[in-house]
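INTERNAL AUDIT FORM
Audit reference: QA-55
Scope: verify that the stored structure record matches its stored sequence.
Auditor: D.O.
Record contents follow.
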Amino acid sequence: MTSIESHFDDDAMNDCKIPVWAARSGWWGRLQPGEKARVVSEVNYQAVRVGEPLQRYGMAALHWTGVISGLAKFTVTTVSGKPLVYSGVGAGGWFGEGTLMRQGVWRYEAIAIRDCELALVPRETFLWLLERNIAFSHYLLQQLNDRLELMTLQALDDHQGGAESIVARTLRHLFHPLAGANGGALRVTQSEIGQLCNLSRQRVNQAFQRLEADGVLHLQYGGVEILDQNKLRAWEFRCPNARTGAKASQPAGKSSEQNRILRPDSVGSQDERQLS
């Protein structure tokens, strides 16, 4: 009986063009040449329009899903019927590993908040990699741990951490190396961040002013640059009264005038002022 490895030898990738999405995927470099060849030969692609689901609640999980381009939010519905957004995924990010490991059905939905292009690795291929590649398994363990921390902090926060802490947490997750972020910028609008944080665009704008004034990030037309990852994480636990209407404490050494307005080039459509 011919083993599957014989079809994907170590030289297979020499004649195979590496897809664009592979370079942004944090797990790709952990695969052996034969494993890369199998993934490339079996991956499928799908386009999803804004507002449409990347996968539907209750359906069997058949693929490990990667976002080639676009942005999506993860939502669950509470017992009272209220939708709850708990995370997001942008270009370079992958999701669904937990459901695939259980070989279960989707217990949440991922909704496109921007047109998305997806790479779909079949469940059988995903489980094959999981069983044979320790480095790949470590990547998945790190990703699951990161998402567990995110959801734990959100549950503990219970809207008491303030808009700045919620925005900082969302940005840190989107800029996480496991999500495909390699530093630099993440293209996303304030309105999109609002959807991920369940905050108004105005409140997101105010949160960014304060974060920029503290040297956490640099806003620019079409993007945002994270300047200090440590400060970004520290802001997750600040401004406990910001959401209840009380005045949030200003970062040390920053005047209220510095935190009051964006730069003059922010005048106009706030949706045009994007983060990266």
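Auditor finding: record pair retrieved intact. Strands lie at 44-48, 53-55, 63-77, 83-90, 94-95, 109-122, 188-189, 217-220, 223-226, 274-275.
Action required: none
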